[in-house]
Amino acid sequence: MTAEQRGDLAEAMLPEAAGLVVEVHEGSADDIRLRLQGLTRHELEAVAVVLAGLADPDRGLKEALSWVTFDEAGDPLDRPSDSKRTVREVAPARRDRSRVVDLVAVDRALSPGPKVVLCRDERRIAVERGIRRGMSYDDVADRLSMDRDAVKQAWERAKRRARSEGRWIPTAPVGEIRNVA
């Protein structure tokens, strides 16, 4: 999905996000479930992003939740709190998923069968592995849902990185034939 498409989706989901805010504040659990039930995974992700955009991370947590006067059973809350923490301070540190590489997913992505979604680092490794195995740029691009030029560019970066680390890397894809008269 391009940045423009993501922006269009987020814009289209603003009414759903606003509706969810109203349901959470004034509706029932069934109202919330019904609102979310018809959304696709991508729409749910867009709604989450829109809702996060509506929140101020530097707002005090007590103030942000001041409208909540009841517990999950609907009983009144009795919670005197002098918490000065902000929404930002409560947020857990983001785990850097780009450092977690699933090599099995990389191999599955290069094999025939259903497409496998890879993170950035996995895709980089998949390009290098695919080319080293003799796959053409076009085959790697097709398996990874990439553009052929993007695969070539990733391969060139992999070669530069390997040279700088003192590792050997073929100058051309193993399966590519060149300079044949």
Overview of the molecule:
By secondary structure, this protein is an all-alpha fold. The chain has 2 domains: 3-90, no CATH class; 99-164, Arc Repressor Mutant, subunit A (Orthogonal Bundle), CATH 1.10.10. It has 9 helices and no strands. The protein has helices spanning 3-26, 29-37, 41-54, 61-64, 87-90, 103-110, 120-132, 137-144, 148-164. The protein starts with a helix and ends in a 17-residue tail after the last helix.
Major β-sheet profile: none
Supply the number of structural domains: 2
General form: elongated
What is the averaged pLDDT score? 82
Question: Can you count the helices?
Answer: 9
Number of strands: 0
Strand residues, percent? under 5%
Helix content: 55-70%
SSE string: HHHHHHHHH
Unreliable stretches (pLDDT < 50, length at least 5) are: none
N-C termini distance: 42 Å
Kindly provide the radius of gyration, computed on alpha-carbon positions and rounded to a whole number of angstroms: 24 Å
Structural class: mainly alpha
